[in-house]
Amino acid sequence: MRISKTVLSLLLCLACASAFAAGDPAAGKIKSNTCTGCHGIPNYKTVYPTYSVPRIAGQNEPYLVSALKAYKSGARKHQTMNPQAQALSDQDIEDIAAYLASLTPGQAGGE
Predict the structure, then answer these.
(1) 42-81 pLDDT tens trace
(2) Rounded to two decimals, what is the model's pTM?
(3) Residue 78: phi, psi to the nearest 5?
(4) Top CATH class, 23-102
(5) Residue 6 CB: number of other CB atoms within 10 A?
(6) Domain boundaries, the chain
(7) In this structure, is the dihedral angle defined by the CA atoms of residues 80, 98, 101 and 68, taken in order, positive or negative?
(8) Which of 14, 55, 96, 104 is most buried, by CB atoms within 10 Å?
(9) Could you tell me if 81 and 71 are in contact, meaning their C-beta atoms sit under 8 angstroms apart?
């Protein structure tokens, strides 16, 4: 009986840890408001340098996490995205990615 309680406790701890590591789409919706300023405008192009702002609504969640973390660390360079990402915690990044991944292309998160 003691072993089964120990195993049950261990499994419960693992389940809780993974729940906290995952992104929360509801929290991400609030945290992603800044993203829609550029990514929420269909066919938006920056002024200088001129390029099309990528679609992020419906994008792959692991890709979004990876990209934001690379902007945050400076491994990926962009004069607007670097400071935006540096202001985010790892949980913010997970939440934003979960929200954006839950959208379909063309929804509020960008086109």
Answers:
(1) 889 888 778 899 989 999 999 999 999 999 999 999 999 9
(2) 0.75
(3) -165, 130
(4) mainly alpha
(5) 10
(6) 23-102
(7) positive
(8) 96
(9) yes
